[in-house]
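2024-03-11 09:14:02 DEBUG pipeline.ingest accepted 1 chain
2024-03-11 09:14:02 DEBUG pipeline.ingest length=273
2024-03-11 09:14:03 DEBUG pipeline.predict start
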Amino acid sequence: MPSIKVKHEYGYIRAGEYQLFTQCFKPSNQSAMVILLHGYLDHAGSFNRLITFLIENHFEVVCYDLPGHGLSSGERATISSFEDYITSLQVIYDRVVPSLTQRPYFIAHSTGAMIGLEFAKRSVERFAKMALVAPLFRPPLWQLSKIGLLFTRKIMFINSFKRIFQTNSSDQDYLLFTKRDPLQEKRLPLSWLEALNKWLRFNDHHTSEDLSFLMIQGDHDKTIDSKYGLKKVQESYPNSQVIIMGNGHHQLLNEGDVIRNQTFSILLKFLKG
């Protein structure tokens, strides 16, 4: 827990058909706000160490569970359209920004980073700064996966797969906690992959060269197609900064102490720079 006085508020905010479980952490000597957004099959509680770090550095933190994740409502781990994710972020943004004297910062992981990027592309002035950690631009072997998706749905009549918990961090305690965490989703619905396919097919070519951000990517990340993501950022967002974390896996925000602390330090320097 942080060593300074913190006001913790939580509750539900409606976004269309969804009730989003939202939390706000306000340190007594806050300097600015950071909006955090988690990745697929995850929830905001996984950011506990990052939240503590930001609070101790005088940032107010707002985070919420995506539809179908954590304590938010919605069919588990799926979505009819990725546009619903964008809408959820828009609702949270509209709720918190009017009370601010300056634009908020944004930090997101994986799928959350992709959602935040699309949100910012529609208005580059929404965030003061953006940090995208291991952003999902495309899953690995995506072209082959699309063929397998069609085969599985049309021929095998399978609607979901059991989640295989990957070794996506060098922190063994975190990996064990994730497997036991009741808020971690345990199945992967094909409907989510279908929604992702539609989203990527439509949005992959829409970019904004005026938009810049910090991208932090682990070189041991097997959860996403990191080579494609790096190439995409270099070509489509040339003003962005990219930092490669040696020996870093997908869960950079929950890595072992050394890599995690390095990641946090990079984020802090970026926010305060």
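2024-03-11 09:14:41 DEBUG pipeline.report The longest helix spans residues 257-272.
2024-03-11 09:14:41 DEBUG pipeline.predict end
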